[in-house]
Amino acid sequence: MTFENLGLSADLLATVAREGYTEPTPVQSAAIPLILAGRDVLAAAQTGTGKTAAFVLPALERLRGHANAGFSPARHPVRMLILTPTRELAVQVSEFVKTYSHGSALRSTVVYGGTRIDPEIKILWKGVEILVATPGRLMDHVGQRTVNLSQVEILVLDEADRMLDMGFIPDVRKIVALMPAQRQTLLFSATFSDDIRRLAGEFLKNPETVEVAARNSIADNLTQVLYPVDQDRKADLLIHLIKRDSMEQVLVFTRSKLGASRLASYLDRRGVSCSAIHGDRSQQERTRALEAFRGHFVKVLVATDVASRGLDIADLPYVVNYELPYEPQDYIHRIGRTGRAGASGTAISLVSPQEVEELRAVQRLLRKSIPCEVVEEYLPDPDREPAAAERPRGGRSQSGQSWSRPARVSSAPAYSRSQLSAAAGSR
Ligand code: AMP
């Protein structure tokens, strides 16, 4: 399949060539012709599959008739709305829209919470054809009557599964009610859960389904490995691995904002250049942290799951799960940041004996176990009482007893003896 076969016109083919895309990704091959034909599309595609171009390129093709150089805002009503769950994804999608529409007279902008609304209002007043927005901020604009959605022709719900998780669907419903019923709707989601199918039933008309990779599949060029280690030695093991493997760009996931801040300052103190990105930081701080990481000014970016959604950093070689996520699905989202668009990548998980349940859940979802490697001096100490920070939430076992190291950890932890001995034997 080539881009020429997909039905895009010469200027968009030139854009694609300029970006260095030689052939369409699977989601692009499947979705672009359907979108060009005006169909509603329900697509299961994770970040990293080229999904943004899969909806932006054909949409630009369909909207080209609206491109005009008129000064009057009335000549530039919103024709396409792209809703995303997070500010970072909104900014990223908007950057792709700008890149792909470069040279066209179609105008675009992005609006999201956590920043001043006035500059956004000024741009909206002048008129834009393509608007990228997070639902909450868009509702603010709707309330202030600074945006009119009555001429929207294409609606994209990007990372709809995350919008669902984050409780945005009531806002999405209100927003959709302001648009013409006669429109094209495209819903992109990392996975098709029953909730997503219900949502598609509500917002899409007779959609075509595009499912590019098997559910929960992981890119072939991605190496996964886990290291057993006690929680309170993870930071030192991380530093050891960064030095041992001369890692230059590492995205590290923690479960909590506090954990992210603490780890970042520890790494900094130990001479590993680092920044952090999480929900408590201002938009400006987040953007700065991301830019520093993208520009190779810092080696490590520590992130929480919510803050990391949709981050696009080209050719990211390493992702580290400093802690496994509570939701196994988040493991797939996290490691999807590496091994993207054909580049190879490594996803490392630092797993303490207290995380065996989370590890089991991840391995169940992957339908395979993650190869285990050991660094002898960081192996968990079987005799040691865990520190308070390592205890499960609540500090009590399921039986209600005060927590002590459960017997199953030494007898059959998910990564334990068989994986450990296999790893040790392979050295
Ligand atoms: P996305 O899944 O939209 O977040 O895109 C992931 C990355 O893939 C981005 O850095 C895009 O620039 C890149 N990309 C998109 N389409 C292609 C393509 N056909 N060939 C190579 N890279 C692509």
- Number of helical stretches of at least 4 residues: 17
How far the N terminus sits from the C terminus, by CA atoms, comes to 43 Å
In round numbers, the mean pLDDT is: 85
Number of strands: 13
Helix and strand sequence:
HHEHEHEHEHEHHEHEEHEHEHEHEHEHHH
CATH fold topology of the largest domain: Rossmann fold
Can you tell me the CATH superfamily of the largest domain?
Answer: P-loop containing nucleotide triphosphate hydrolases
Helix content: 25-40%
Explain the overall architecture.
- With 427 residues, this protein is an alpha/beta fold.
- The protein folds into 2 domains: 3-211, P-loop containing nucleotide triphosphate hydrolases (Rossmann fold, 3-Layer(aba) Sandwich), CATH 3.40.50; 222-426, Rossmann fold.
- It is 38% helix and 14% strand.
- The protein has 17 helices and 13 strands.
- The strands form 2 sheets. A 7-stranded parallel β-sheet has the order 3-4-2-5-6-1-7, with helices on both faces. Strands 8-13-12-9-11-10 form a 6-stranded parallel β-sheet, sandwiched between helices.
- Strand 10, helix 12 (283-294) and strand 11 (300-303) form a beta-alpha-beta unit.
- The longest helix is centred in the N-terminal third of the chain and has 14 residues, at 87-100.
- It is globular, with a radius of gyration of 23 Å.
- 45% of the residues are buried.
- The site of adenosine monophosphate has 15 residues, from helix 3.
